[in-house]
Amino acid sequence: MGALAAALSVPAGAWAAKWDMPVRSNERNHFTQNVAIFAKDIDAATQGELKLTIHPEDSLIKQQDLKRAIQTGQVPIGEFLMSLHSNENPIFGIDSLPFLATNLDENAKLLGVVRPYLVERLSKQGLRLLFAAPWPGNSLYSQKELNSLYDLKGTKFRAFNPVTGRLAELVGATPVTVQQSEISQAFSTGVIDAMITSPATGIDMHVWDYVKHYTDVAAMSPWNLVVVNERIFSKLSDTQKSAVQAAALAAEERAWKNAGAISVNLTKVLQTNGIIVKEPNDKMRKEITALREVFIKEWLQKAGDEGTKIVEAYRSAK
Fold this sequence. Notes:
Helix 2 (30-45) runs antiparallel to helix 9 and helix 4 (104-124) packs across helix 10 (282-317). Helix 5 (162-170) links the parallel strand 6 (156-159) and strand 7. The protein is an alpha/beta fold. 47% of the residues lie in helices and 19% in strands. The chain has helices at residues 3-9, 30-45, 63-72, 104-124, 162-170, 183-188, 199-204, 230-234, 238-272, 282-317; strands at 17-22, 50-55, 77-81, 127-134, 138-142, 156-159, 174-177, 194-197, 213-220, 223-229, 276-278. The chain starts with a helix and ends with a helix. The chain has 10 helices and 11 strands.
């Protein structure tokens, strides 16, 4: 019997449950470690009535398929990169608009503005948002030193969502779709030779084996979302529901509280392993400002009135 069928066939509060939970990254990654604490908190609060088994890094379900798998009840809960689904709805891509929110405070304000829209959208799809956690600022990895964004022209640039593909196009690179678990192989086989991603992913993939330069543009800090199938969640007892919600609140607070220090420490690890880290120069900063407006304009054309309200509210909150 599948997880959804089991959840719907037993009266609320009368059963113990074991939930499979696919997550995006490997066991060493701080996101996965945070989810592990989330699972332990639920186990403790429910006295073992609700247990989560974590399946890291595409080991159970591919990231691009996970959101749909949770909607259909194939798995009850999971963690996925929100921006993977930006072609489905523009709201799912706002966290990854390059250079819109370039530090932790700005990113937190953006989430505060977007959350009601996000909750509404997910709810219509039968999903409950439990928590959102930010990636460290995504920056540029390259084999050669970058003094301009357009020094990436001609490179084979890893794209992990539509907007990073568009960034590649705008700077004259060739976008190549490569998911996180495939990065090492893509570099080693010459499929890609540059990318934009977080220091966490760079470390997970031992990126120093393939590139030497890291330009800290902090273009975006995409969100991982942890969501649960609403129908399955509704069958939990009140105590179990409260345990899940309390653990989710603690996990989100922990993720945002630790994000700054994690980013600094991860960047130091890159340096320790031979990566040359540099800040963008004045020329690059001007290019960043110009590209930010291009991305906002293009996003608003897709997002319409709802998108305009979000951007205006975000800019007012800054």
